[in-house]
Amino acid sequence: MPTNSDKEILPVLDRRFGTWRVSIAREPMTVRQLARTYDEQAACWGAKIRRLRTGTFYDEIWASVSESLDAASEGRQLNVLDCGIGQGAFSLALAEQFEVKPHISGIDLSENMLNEAAETLGREGLSFTLKRADVRRLPFEDSQFDIVASAHVIEHLPRPEIVVREMWRVLKPGGRLVLSVTQPSIFGALLQLNWRARTYAYGELEQLLITAGFVRPSKITVGTWSLAARMSLVCQAGKL
Questions:
Q1: Which domains does the chain have, with CATH numbers?
Q2: Within the chain, which residues score under 50 in pLDDT?
Q3: How confident is the model over 178-201, as pLDDT tens digits?
Q4: What is the pLDDT of residue 229?
Q5: How far apart are CA 148 and CA 141, in angstroms?
Q6: Of residues 95, 150, 81, 88, the one with CA closest to residue 114
Q7: From CA 177, how far away is CA 196, in angstroms rounded?
Q8: CA distance 90 to 139
């Protein structure tokens, strides 16, 4: 559960107008608030991601990196961790790229989202393990996963360096991180208002990954036009 140090107040606007100073700050949701919000949203989440064409966006992300990932797998089953798995759409798009389907480990704060993910992954016959857990304290051993994936999670949380360092810790040397976050845009601003989340420019995200220990970060660009693609920044990185 969150401590006082988890409640980080982040300035969004801080301007002086003559003798007036106007300041607006963002207070991220607590872990309890996030869990409750996603529990409430779980039943209608599938309809929302369909409107955003999120599935097509996710398909293009994994198609853009599947050749190198497939070569690295050498016909074996990859071990994948999805941090903030939600209903499982990001993991499902990944699994569809491989002839040998990976084992998916997924964590989420929301029990309702985990139930939805179990139904999604089970319907496709995938091997999976789901846990209710906090991404800041991943319940896994070091260097356990070939791929660590996360879509639209770290922008909700204070102290993102803790989250990214945990992802680095559980990734195997030679493994791959694929991270999708909200980028500055009109759509990103709307998300900030509704979810009290933040946005990331590429330079910020790149520096965050390098500081955590990741190497060779690079931006993934997709061709699809969708609200999901327009509001998102996707980056991949490795671990030595």
A1: 30-238 (3.40.50.150)
A2: 1-7, 9-13
A3: 999 999 877 666 666 666 778 899
A4: 86
A5: 13
A6: 88
A7: 25
A8: 20
Detail the DSSP E strand segments found in the chain: 10-17, 20-26, 79-83, 103-108, 127-132, 145-151, 171-182, 215-220, 232-238
In terms of phi and psi (left: phi > 0; alpha: psi -120 to 50; beta: otherwise), the region of 177 is: beta
Q: Are 197 and 220 in contact (CB under 8 A)?
A: no
Question: Tokens 């990944």 — which residue?
Answer: 94
Closest to 209 measured CA to CA, from 170, 167, 159, 172: 167
**Chain-centre distance of CA 137, in angstroms?**
15
Question: For residue 17, what are its two tokens?
Answer: 């107008």
**Pair of tokens at residue 171:** 């990734």
Which of 160, 134, 148 minimizes the C-alpha distance to 239? 148
β-strand partners of 150: 179
